[in-house]
Amino acid sequence: MGTTMQMNSTENVNRTKVYLPREHGATAMLLTPIFSVAILARTWQWSEVAVLTAAFSAMAAKDPAVLLLRQRFTWKQRSPEARGAARWLIGWMTILIASIVVLFVTWPLKAFLAIGAGVAAFGCIAVAVNFKNKQRSTLFQIVSAAALTSTSLATCISALGSVATWCWWFWALIAMQASAGILVVHSRLDARIALRKASPASRQFRRAAQVAVVVLLCAAVAMVVRERAWIAAALTIAAVGYGYDLIRQKTPASLQMALKTVGQQALALSVVYSLLLIAGLW
Questions:
Q1: What secondary structure letter does DSSP report for 42?
Q2: Closest of 101, 94, 127, 95 to residue 116, by C-alpha
Q3: Which of 80, 110, 168, 201 is most buried per CB count within 10 Å?
Q4: Which residues contact 71 (CB under 8 A, 6 or more apart)?
Q5: Separation between Cα atoms, residue 154 and residue 55, nearest integer Å
Q6: What span, in angstroms and rounded, lies between the C-alpha atoms of 10 and 225?
Q7: Distance between CA 215 and CA 207 in Å, rounded?
Q8: 58 CB neighbour count, 10 Å cutoff
Q9: 179 Cβ partners below 8 Å, 6+ apart?
Q10: Do residues 259 and 184 lie in contact, with contact meaning Cβ atoms separated by under 8 Å?
Q11: pLDDT in tens, the chain (282 residues)
């Protein structure tokens, strides 16, 4: 009877486990640049769909890949989730490979090799970092923001055949905002943990987030000098929003706010920021 219950439990795990991207903030960083650049390009090519499916499937494949690696090299015994993870990994990799084939056929070869090498390198790094549970590294978080938002470059190549000058600006600006957002969220998580344990919070991410806010403000001033009012407004709003969140992280009541609510507020800020960038680069 005990064996039967265990088998039923295993079957239930394999049936119900769904491997979709869990980090909603990271998913937004991945997808928002695609739609923003599609608007800014003022044209549409069907290969832009391949950029979308390639980006999403690559992100979704990370979790099952990490689980299978841990089973092979860490646990060294079969996990009840392994069979389901393998199926999801095969599925996502099939979509990814099909998307890559489309991009290979439609993109200039140099652009395909350059973007492909970068994505492959970051993918390997991301899996290795998550496998070793080192994903809270500040440097890795900043690199992740730059890598995730580079979907803007891929979308521009699909739409125009090359990366336009305005797209390089868009990538730099969206990556700055994404980096600041990631650091602020991690600062909040550290503060929440410290609140529960009644111990001083780690200041690693808080200091990094404060630096990121200052960088956003400096960039806003630079855009004012260049008479790019919409972009200056975007940077200012992002800096003020993240600065305010860092201030309220000192309040216990704010730290007890549901993470879903915090995520929705961060997403709203990112959407406003992207819309202002579109207006500024139009």
A1: T
A2: 101
A3: 201
A4: 77, 78, 79, 82
A5: 10
A6: 62
A7: 13
A8: 23
A9: 141, 142, 145, 146, 212
A10: no
A11: 444 444 444 444 445 588 787 777 778 888 999 999 999 999 889 999 999 999 999 888 888 888 888 887 777 677 778 888 889 999 999 999 999 999 999 999 999 999 999 988 988 888 788 777 777 787 888 888 999 999 999 999 999 999 999 999 999 999 999 999 999 998 998 898 888 887 777 788 899 999 999 999 999 999 999 999 999 999 999 999 999 999 999 888 888 888 888 888 888 999 999 999 999 999
Does the CA dihedral 253-257-262-264 come out positive or negative? Answer: negative
The answer to whether 122 touches 147, Cβ cutoff 8 Å, is: yes
> For the chain, how many residues are written?
282
215, 275 contact by CB (below 8 A): no
Whole-model pTM?
Answer: 0.85
